[in-house]
From TrEMBL:
The lineage of its organism: Eukaryota, Viridiplantae, Streptophyta, Embryophyta, Tracheophyta. The gene is LOC101784357. It comes from Setaria italica (Foxtail millet). The keyword Nucleotide-binding applies. Belongs to the Mrp/NBP35 ATP-binding proteins family. NUBP1/NBP35 subfamily. ATP binds at G74, K75, G76, G77, V78, G79, K80, S81. This is Cytosolic Fe-S cluster assembly factor NBP35. It holds the Pfam family ParA. One of its GO terms (cellular component) is cytosol. Binds 3 [4Fe-4S] clusters per homodimer. Contains two stable clusters in the N-termini and one labile, bridging cluster between subunits of the homodimer. Residues 1-11 have a biased composition (Gly residues). Component of the cytosolic iron-sulfur (Fe-S) protein assembly (CIA) machinery. Required for maturation of extramitochondrial Fe-S proteins. Functions as Fe-S scaffold, mediating the de novo assembly of an Fe-S cluster and its transfer to target apoproteins. Essential for embryo development.
Amino acid sequence: MENGGGGGGRGDVPDDANEHCPGTQSEDAGKADACAGCPNQQICATAPKGPDPDVVAIVERMATVKHKILVLSGKGGVGKSTFSAQLSFALAEMEHQVGLLDIDICGPSIPKMLGLEGQDIHQSNLGWSPVYVESNLGVMSIGFMLPNPDDAVIWRGPRKNGLIKQFLKDVDWGEIDYLVVDAPPGTSDEHISIVQYLQATGIDGAIIVTTPQQVSLIDVRKEINFCKKVGVPVLGVVENMSGLRQPLSDLRFVKSGESGEADATEWVLNCIREKAPELLSVVACSEVFDSSKGGAEKMCIEMGVPFLGKVPMDPQLCKAAEEGRSCFADQKCSASAPALQSIVKKFIKPE
């Protein structure tokens, strides 16, 4: 017999349950007279009841973390991990105590982007110790657990979820101001798990990273709807790789001929030095992706979420990520660092 609303809309009553189902969390689950013949009877009778003890442990562990920010993307390859890394560097340089948790189980790039390749996790009587970049910036990633960085992590959902749970309940972050969580692209097991486990501890919200073109924005819309459905506030959307910005002096020039392309960089730069040296300080800008339909900013207006700003495609930022260093440490990332700082200031409020 179908439930037919016998559960009164309760979330712990399966759709295919019998009428008068006591609920999966009830002590009578699978044992009451109403359970006879129900397809879920055996599962309900043997499943553990009450709150997950691991979730209780997570709540206790997260009690020392003031703010939790998820960094998400609908599409892979949009610079989400680069943003997570530089956001963490920025918060640390603002003298906050920061933790960066990498839950991209199958593609952990955070260790490289923080300059921590080859580091190991250490365990104490308080739990797993993060790997520290600075005294106020700790990192945790499955990348520290792989014997060989080229090893593929071929795990199904339950095993991924188990590791995420372990990261949350066993890592000893200590007293920190911000925990930045770098999630994989999409809306899959890892996203459901991190939200489920952290919801009881309070999630400040999610920052969603995209590029300007429609093929990325299509998936970002899904990511925003995911956040709305699971009750995670969207702190805002960042449009990354929003046009190429590069000093003219850093460009490479080629001349095309019958025999192919020939490097003409020195010839061009010498001409500029001789005839218009002031042009060497000019920044060249170019649209890489088609943003004629309004890009992320227009999408944010349509979906009613904040637009945090644009970060240009900056070769120096790419180099900083490859070398595992902060883009704020020097003046090399002159195109991207100010944009990133402006974005951070929009959602980080003074205590």
